[in-house]
Amino acid sequence: MYDLIIIGSGPAGYVSAIRAGQLGLKTAIIEKHLVGGMCLNWGCIPSKAIMESAKLFDRIKSDSARFGIDGIDKNSLSFNWSKAVKRSDGIVKKLTTGVSFLLKKNGIEVIEGEAKILSAGLVTVNNRTLEAKNIMIATGTKSPEIQNSFNGLVVEPKELFTDRELPDNIVVTGETPVAVELAQAFNLMGKKVSLLVPGDRIMPLADEYIVNFILNKLKKDRIKVIYNQPLTSTDGLWSDGKLQAGEEIDCDLIINATRRKAILPPSDISFDLDENGYIKVDENMQSSVAGIFAVGDVNGLSYYAHIGSAQGMHVVNLVKGIKQKLDLKKYPMNMYTVPEAAQIGLTENDIKAAGYDYKISEFPMSANGKALTEGHLEGFVRILSETKYGEVLGVQIIAPNATDMISEAAAYMELEATVYDIAQTVHAHPTISEVFMEAGFEAVDKAIHK
Fold first, then answer.
1. pLDDT one digit per residue (tens) for the chain, 450 residues
2. Are residues 98 and 210 in the same domain?
3. Taking Cα atoms as reference points, which of 197, 196, 191, 198 lies closest to residue 252?
4. Phi, psi (5° rounding) for residue 41?
5. Are 248 and 265 within one domain?
6. Which residue from 49, 293, 306, 351 lies 20 to 30 Å from 96 (Cα-Cα)?
7. Same domain membership, residue 195 and residue 103
8. What is the rounded CA–CA span in Å between residue 329 and residue 334?
9. Is 147 part of a structural domain of the chain?
10. Residues labelled catalytic
């Protein structure tokens, strides 16, 4: 009898398993492919590694002379996809090996195979029937398939980061930050990129202010964005390197980065699903079946690894008898665009809908000394606060390291800090993080350096 059986070993699953082991719960984790799941093996980690290679390549071409570096022949520079992938593979191997070590260290039984749920307390895998007090589904999501009869034309993200020949004309289809990130990465490599958006906007969960900034960036970088073009099949749309998508565009490769759908494990019992096919859960991540929880992408509440991990740890603590409140609005939303974007708390539209009397205070990166020395002048920090007491309602950041900076905002919001607290927080000089203090002063009275 296990205290907990976890199905899926992505960040939601393996973090939960490690936490369960630390708390002394007898735990098994079932994985049908590779430990680490989509994020470590094919998604978050390899995509960020490739993006860093692309950004470095672009910066050497664009900024070397301005930074006082002579002797670089731009005409001799080229992006070596194979070497970038090899570097990425090394990082992935190091991380997945580390996760496997931690699972073993914490006494987690790792079972390779496909799990099937028989009932609330029974799971079968490899002709073994396992009994558990609690079951956690952490099976993640996958992109809806694009019907395609042309060999090699459509590539899934899971298959993208492999040694391959990259053509000149690349189409990315999707609306999420991942789709934008991929479009920008290949653009930085010198490819001609088009972004097909199924609906009428990109990054649907992001604040409009961030969306508009990124759209202007895409336009500046000559990435064509075409709206209301859902691509479910290439039949009749592609011929001789041309794709008919509202207009004729050059296309040698299509990357499927559409919004992902839940992967439901085989089961003899049924769960309540929402209109998009995700497992419905309550405030404690419990499904419609008592004792069976769903965490991470599979419940549709978020597609971010760190939020899936937080949901999983919440469940593990609950199983152990530790009761907490899970407030997803206090977890950051990271977008690994160029420059990076991040937000936490309420968007401006959320604040308007809730009827708050609010204030916006903003400070640009172009007025920050450290940003000037680094040559990164694009972006801002933007704080939305309630006017009566100054409570921070939401924070948005555009900056090269926004996804790291947002953690400071997360700490402020966890402690229900006010703009007065932010203004009084001393930041070392020169640092990018000084923009928080400046935005805090802007909310209270007037920024120092503005």
1. 999 999 999 999 999 999 999 999 999 999 999 999 999 999 999 999 999 999 999 999 999 999 999 999 988 999 999 999 999 999 999 999 999 999 999 999 999 999 999 999 999 999 999 999 999 999 999 999 999 999 999 998 889 999 999 999 999 999 999 999 999 999 999 999 999 999 999 999 999 999 999 999 999 999 999 999 999 999 999 999 999 998 999 999 999 999 999 999 999 999 999 999 999 999 999 999 999 999 999 999 998 999 999 999 999 999 999 988 898 888 999 999 999 999 999 999 999 999 999 999 999 999 999 999 999 999 999 999 999 999 999 999 999 999 999 999 999 999 999 999 999 999 999 999 999 999 998 888 877 777
2. no
3. 191
4. -90, -40
5. no
6. 293
7. no
8. 13
9. no
10. 429
322: Cβ contacts below 8 Å, ≥ 6 apart:
none
The domain that holds 138 is classified in CATH as 3.50.50.60
Q: In degrees to the nearest 10, what's the CA dihedral of 142, 166, 226, 209?
A: 70
Please give the residue range of the domain that contains residue 231: 154-256
Residue 51 lies in a domain: yes
Q: How many domains does the chain divide into? A: 3
Residue 98 lies in a domain: yes
What CATH number did the domain enclosing 385 receive?
3.30.390.30
Angstrom distance (rounded) from CA 9 to CA 26: 16
Between CA 138 and CA 240 the distance in angstroms is: 42
Is-contact 399 408, C-beta < 8 A? no
3-class DSSP state of 237: coil
What angle do helix axes 208-220 and 177-188 make, rounded to 10 degrees?
Answer: 20
Whether residue 324 lies inside any domain: the answer is yes
In this structure, are strands 109-112 and 27-31 parallel, antiparallel, or unpaired? parallel
